[in-house]
Amino acid sequence: TVFDDDEAGTFGTAQIQIGLQYDDKKKRFKIFVMQLCNVGALTQQQDQKIYVRVAVLPCSETTSCLFRTESLGPSDTLVYKELFWVSISHSALCRKTLRIDVCSVKQSHHEHCLGGAEISLAEVNCSGEKSTCWYNLLADKHLKKQSKK
Amino acid sequence: TVFDDDEAGTFGTAQIQIGLQYDDKKKRFKIFVMQLCNVGALTQQQDQKIYVRVAVLPCSETTSCLFRTESLGPSDTLVYKELFWVSISHSALCRKTLRIDVCSVKQSHHEHCLGGAEISLAEVNCSGEKSTCWYNLLADKHLKKQSKK
After folding, report:
1. In chain A, what are the domains?
2. Does A95 contact B1 at a Cβ distance shorter than 8 Å?
3. Distance between CA A74 and CA B63 in Å, rounded?
4. Which of A38, A69, A147, B101 is the most exposed place for a label (fewest CB within 10 A)?
5. Which of A9, A62, A134 sits opposite B60 (nearest CB)?
6. Chain A: nearest CA to B37, how far in angstroms?
7. ipTM above 0.90, yes or no
8. Which letter does DSSP use for residue A26 in this model?
9. Structure confidence by residue, pLDDT tens digits, B72-127
């Protein structure tokens, strides 16, 4: 049986638009956190401010690998347009994975992540072109449910 | 400072080769689990049999979303060449994320996953062409370390 959109289990999916670019001359990898859409698919609470956390994993001992955008919202679409970069050789970059987490601001100062995406950098190109894509955000609740099976 | 290969923190990275193909006529999504390389980067134990678990998330209530390959090994390169498919519309597929886990066989019958990768299907094409890529596997230990920060 073919399951259709309604059966996919959510009323929409939160997505994040990310741009990636490797500058081979300067040996720099640039990560553009562009925008989030359909934030409502990740959380029931409508009054939260949301930020995006980016990690280049596995983490290096010598360079920072963790970045955070400003907090925005509340809104169902959030436009960040923030740029982060890491100094790294192309061969080292190709062994990394970009972990993107969408987190809400809590007064408790604990990070509370609502969902995320992973982007393997194994085949990241070094042509200098910027590639911009949308990525589905998997709600953390789905992952937990899955790992119990 | 540019960190080079040695500073990347691992002696190599485990990778998995996956082929993806959407058949628009039959409304089927095919997942080819092709091969694993550099398994040694995920585990110290050299005598384990390894299988690959594939989940199409979020899980549908009506269709199976979880698949497992046979167990192979021990070897640093493991060739599976196994095909799984799900019946799904293209629009529903575009809201899914493919979660790949590499797990070792334990006598306790508990799943023990060594590492994994996520592939967002937001921009999966429906041209019928098969796209084959290598994906870095992020060791579960790295993820746990990161979330403690």
Report:
1. 14-143 (2.60.40.150)
2. no
3. 35
4. A147
5. A9
6. 13
7. no
8. T
9. 989 999 999 999 999 999 999 999 999 999 999 877 777 889 999 999 999 998 88
